[in-house]
């Protein structure tokens, strides 16, 4: 059953449904009913199935809790309710010549701001601009007792509760229900140009390491099928001079959006092998990943710090490769497009202890998205 606040038509673009959401959470806490928190549900594939200790979880939607509550283009700060469609926020920012620097993926038209915060996923600009967490200034969260509390603020120096706000990023709704977030935004670049340079993978990684030590206006770099793809952004003269220096051909429009939204052929769901995401330190050399038989089985994003791999090898074998390189591996999609029981790298015992203690303190009855990240909590 899906629980949504009793409000007017979905055409309403500004509505505070926090009281209805808080009331449902209070009842869930009293009854011990597990809740599956959702926004647009476009990232339902990312993580484990929500399953409470007492049975099937009830879905609680934030989609009617929407609207931009405050926006100051001069101060580069926006506050927005969690159920607000991500596309609406981005359109409002673009109308003022601004953007979300972390370039979050949508994976569907219904993607919400709350889903962006809960998953913490960032796009191609992430290594140069920062992650979702880096731009969160504050949040409003409904805790297990049904009380809405504010953490952080609207300026970087306001640090009261700041760490808890950042902790909510990527927590997948397991610690509480995010109702509002305040974020730092940035101006859109004055000019943008994308290049396609044919070169082997090893040469591309060497070049990226070299260019990374220079003040070049690179804001995206991906290697795929024998070619390095670059995006240059900044002042018109700087972009033009860098493009002339680096050479290559003009890259077709839409490549970076297709990469961010995983619409490239590389991500085709019909591939029978599992799709893995390897998160690695910068300048990690080419790795020998089990089950990878051709260069077409890999896509290097974030200048090589994020690598997408198609492989039918054992999960532990792939994770061992990432671990030895100082990173970790997430099973993004199982063989044949199926979900997997444990998509995330198992936690170190010490880290797991802290995770468990935090969950116990904030959600002792396990009503918020239980099992979404790990089976134990």
TrEMBL record:
A single Pfam family it belongs to is: FAD_binding_4
Keyword annotations for this protein, in alphabetical order, are: FAD, Flavoprotein, Oxidoreductase
Give the EC number(s) under which this enzyme is classified: 1.1.99.14
UniProt keyword Lipid metabolism present: no
Q: Which residues form the FAD-binding PCMH-type domain?
A: 5-188
Q: Which GO terms describe its molecular function?
A: FAD binding; glycolate dehydrogenase activity
Asked if the record carries the keyword Oxidoreductase, the reply is yes
Protein name per UniProt: Glycolate oxidase subunit GlcE
Lineage of the organism: Bacteria, Pseudomonadati, Pseudomonadota, Gammaproteobacteria, Oceanospirillales
